[in-house]
Structures are given as structure tokens and as C-alpha cells.
Amino acid sequence: MKNVLLLGAGMVAPPLIRYLLENGFALTVASDVPDRAARLIGGHSRGRSVPFDARDKDRLENLVGEHDLAVSLLPAPLHPLVAEACIARRVPMVTTSYVSPEMRRLDEAAREAGIILLNEIGVDPGLDHMSAMRIIHDVESRGGKVSSFKSYCGGLPAPDSNDNPWGYKFSWSPRAVCTAGKNSARWRENGREINIPGPDLFLNHHDVRVEGLGTLEAYPNRDSLAYLDTYDLHEIETMFRGTFRYPGWCDCMKKVVGLGLLGEEPVTYPTGMTLSEWMRTFLTVPDTGDLRADLARQLQLEESSDVLDRFQWLGLMSDDLVAITGRPTTPLDVLAARLEQKMSYQPGERDMIVMCHYFTAKFPDGRTEEITSTLIDYGQPDGDSSMARTVSYPAAIGAKLILEGAITDTGVHIPVRPEIYNPVLDELKTLGIAFSETSRCAGQ
Length: 444
Hints:
Elements: E1 3-7, H1 13-22, E2 26-31, H2 34-41, E3 47-51, H3 57-65, E4 69-72, H4 79-89, E5 93-95, H5 101-104, H6 107-113, E6 116-118, H7 127-141, E7 145-157, H8 174-180, E8 185-189, E9 192-196, E10 206-210, E11 214-220, H9 227-231, E12 238-245, H10 249-259, E13 267-268, H11 275-280, H12 291-299, H13 306-314, E14 328-329, H14 331-342, E15 351-362, E16 368-378, H15 386-403, E17 411-413, H16 418-430, E18 436-441
Parallel strand pairs: 1-2, 1-4, 2-3, 4-5, 5-6, 6-17, 7-12
Antiparallel strand pairs: 7-15, 8-9, 10-11, 11-12, 13-14, 15-16, 16-18
């Protein structure tokens, strides 16, 4: 029996835990919240939970050494520490996060250790790579070449659960969602490279109509050109990766950024501080005693603005108390705590993952084909969220394939090879996670 170590027991962990236990593996869940880990294991005879502090490197290496494979669902900055322990003990590793420069530098060491460090095998990144590469390789097998590729993904409330002014609820870390809004972006449009600094990210959005859902708002997701090598599309004319949100998100988040609410400089707020008092610390205009009017003036908005309605609904102009006071924190953490309080899924509500790929492919006979690939996956009311399913099932299947010897690569990898993406996508289809595809010749 193979033994798997899962590091972290957060919001996306439950489907992965069940999958590995149901497929005959022994599982150790190491978490700084061992009671939650124990609840997720549910008394299964092949499961156990252990307390774990990611800062204890000796403990980490010893835990890794007791297992045949490690899955890290820890915060992304900790993955290289886990990878180093895996290399030291020659234990393969799976993560759902982007390959960082620190992780990339471990490629040679992982090859020498004879293990794979399989990253980006979640939803985004993960399902985006796998579904896209299957189409790209199919086009190439038919003699064609992809000339344009636009890819979008978003984790959103399902329409029946979309009941707040922000059009959003959190199925993963609010802090991580906010931090992603500070990233710069780069892409290629009709042969021209476009670079957008982080503070201007939310100024660059456009609408996309998704069949069956209507219009969503999209904004750039990080460095799209980093995937020219990944997808072997160096000559492509348009390469864009974007994030989906309901309309109005970008205008609101631009003002959040402009106020400084995503700041990460340490601040100690006094005990008893209200959210309205906290908001005033970001104002540079004179205090008139009317916070909404003062915010409107500073942000150059009408007082009736939807953005201010969203701020008011969130309680940022209220006498509710700041959640983190009396100790060093950051504006970002204060905001994230409030977002989690007000914008979490309630019993019976469900989330939704929407992923769309739009390809233009050209063929030697002059024909141009337009291909659309769409995934709309809904969470289960009072069960697994779609975010949890689409993040953790690909990682769990990848872990199983490694342990069964179906994946034999070594070094740092992401799932862009047929030997990885085909079996993962095929099994996901049996779990109800599948893309629908349409294609037509341009001009039809």
C-alpha cells in the first residue's frame, strides 16, 4: 500500500482526501489545524492527521521521508521548502500552484534525485493547460497552426447564489484573491506585446459573452507570454489569459487598489477601531464628517456610485469593529477578514467554475477554423464546492498516476504532455468535470 502525505487541510482539500482514500492509498494529513484534518478524514482506517508547523524543516523532512508521495496544498511560498525536503528524501511531489522561480531552480536537483515535482495541476493553473494542450496538439496533428488563443477562467457564485452587490463569494482564500489583483500583466494582441503594471490591472477589462451564462467581465491574468514556451506557440499572433468576474468587479477593485486597501506594510490598529474609522485612515481629502461624500471626492466618483454601494454593503462605512486590532497586521489582511465575514458561501449555496478557450487555427489549404472549448461546473449545495472539485481532483489523479507508475518523468513539470493530460482529463470526465467543444470554419 502506498502512503501519501497531504500538507494542508484548507477549503479545497476534502475531495482530494476522499479520492485518495477511496482509491486504496494510506493518507496522512499534516496541518496546523489538526482537528479540522481529523474531521476531513472522518475516522477512515487508512487515514490519520498529525499537527504540523511548516517552519519546522526537520519535522517536514521526516514526515516526507515516511511517505511515497507528498501533495502540498500549503500557501504557494512554502512549496519550495516542501520540494527541497522531497528531493532530500527522493519522494515525488504534487502541487496545484504556479511554478515559482525558486521551484524552477530545483529542476536539476529533482532529476538527479529521480523524482517528479508536478506543479500547476489544479484548475487554473491546471485544467486550463490540459484542456488547451489537447486542442493545440489536435490542431497540429491535422497539419494546422494555432494563430490566436484566448483563455479565461473564473470561480464565481452560481447565478442562483449571486445575491450580493460585489457579485462574488469566496471558495478559496480571500487574501489570495486580493493579492492576485496586484499582479502586473503581459500579453500579445495581433502581434503587439502589451504590458500593464499592477496598479493599472483593473483598468484593462472587456466583456465576454459565455453561452448559457450571458456576459462576464474579463481582465488579464499575469504573464500570458510565459506560456509561449509552455504551449510551443512562439509565432502566435494573439496570446491572452484572463480572469472572469461578474460585471462591475474591475471598476470596484480599481478603487480598492487606489485607496491602498491592498497595502502590505505592517500597521497596528487600536483596539476598538471601527471600519469607518479605519477607512478614514486612507483619506487625503479634508474630513467633512460624511464618509461616503469624502470617499466619493477622493475617488472621483458620484456619491450614488455602485462602487460606494459595494463599500457600504461590505460595512466599510459602518461602526462594525475592525477584525484585527492590537497587533501588527496589514490593510490587506483587514480587508480580507471583512470580505470573508460578509462574502462566504452559506448553507445550500453553490459556486461555479467557468473556463473558456477561444482558438483560431489556420491550415495549409487556406482554411481557418475557430474552436471554442467551455467548462461550466457547479458546486454541490451543502457538499463540495466546484473550486474544491476542480482544484483537488486533478492533483489527486496526478498523484495516483505517479504512484501507479503511469507518469515516469523527473524534474519540475506541469501537465502539458499527453501522457499526463489525457488520463487526467479522461478520469475527470467520469467525475462529471468535462469540456464541451464547438468548431466552425471562419466565415460560416
